[in-house]
Amino acid sequence: MPVFQRPVKDFGLIDLPFPLRKMSVCPLGTLTGRRTGQRGRIDYELSRGVTAFPSVGDQVLIPTPEQIAAIVGANDPARRVWIGSSPMAGDARIQVDPDKLFGRHLAVLGNTGSGKSCSVAGLIRWSLESAKKGMAAAGADACPNARFIVLDPNGEYANAFADVGGTRVFRVPPVAGGARPLDVPGWLWNGHEWEAVAHAQPGAQRPLLLQGIRELKSGQAEGVPRAAILGRYLATYSIQLSALLARGVQAFAGDFKVRMDCGRFLENLAGDAAVWAAELGGAAGAAEIQDLAETVSGILDGRRYKSWFNDFTVADIETSRVKVDTAVAILPALPAPPAIGEDAPRFFDVNLLADHLDRIAADKGGNVAAFISTLGLRIRGMLADPRLSSVVARTPPVAFSDWLADYVGSDGAGNGPIAVVDLSLVPSEVVHIVVAVLGRLVFESLQRYRRLREDGKSLPTVMVLEEAHTFVRKGRDDEPSSASRLCRETFERIAREGRK
Hints:
500 residues; alpha/beta; five-stranded parallel β-sheet; two-stranded antiparallel sheet; 16 helices; 11 strands
């Protein structure tokens, strides 16, 4: 720290150094020297941290070339990957230890056009070349058990590793040049990711969306007996009849509109019951449903006058409800749903989700269908885009184990150490969701791999997030759920818990 002394004319004062300029410094380490056997030679070594801070009046020294080499670690044998030279340090060679470099979080920063992407590609390439040389020297001829997963929103890395054997490139169809179709299936998304991409509101849309996903993943929409489904439909009619009785006579008598609404409701009940009785044929419950249809039709005939209805009585509504409950008791009940949550990575046909939500809303009755109509429209619109439907609803679907082998890598990195995910053609409104899903799946698979290993050893994996400022934006905790917030939370979790 340079110190300049001001002349003091008062000879009665002690002449202490007085700074005319100030310098802010940040101590990084301590450079220690050790004299070797050779005469006059000193070997320098840099240790992180300081034990004694400089004080006012200490000298500032310019390091010698030997000291610069020790500071940048050019003499460290563990630093075996050369990444360049530093003009500010006497053109000293800058070398890194890949185990330490990729064993912690790393940011490559710089202005536009300064070579950030080239530096990242060089780090990956040079590290693999160094690992292959070390394995060849040891007599091994296998591929390094390392994994680099590059999330590339600009399509810059597709050809960067073309000469590296086993490089896997994934992009939105149509694909060419040996690339593979990008596949981030919707059945691998968790509930929060579906909520964000569908913009499900917390009132009625979010619970129904999660219920629909759970039912599709548990198979409740497939293989359920038709009689059980009809029993569920009839149970909704019983609920509405009970609601009429709870409201009193004014719900089905007196006012013209009230009488007409009740008459139309009973007409729908009689029509559905007649159709369902014919559908069941001679199966259990068909006779009870046919009796229900005839009873309600008789009530309607007795109250109908020209094109409107006279007042209905409490006995009419109660009789209809008893007939409905009798038919429901005969029909088989729905099987108990298995304990499968909406976050389980279990296959279901994504194209059935919107229609299944409509059926759930129809079963619940009331205004629920109107509340979730926009939710179904958003899901259908998303799947109507061929660029996105080929990514989230691929046909035929791939098995989860095969998906992990493609994107994370097979055992021993047998299918190559590098996977490049080209996101340049993914629609901008869902690219954050795709990145968040990829990041979460890779991170959780590595966490489970480590827990399943008896020795607790992790799988060496590096995830490269190009244009990170686009996907990890500063936000507020009180902002509504969105794709950008979900993406930020995913990588915040990786930053807190992820290692290698």
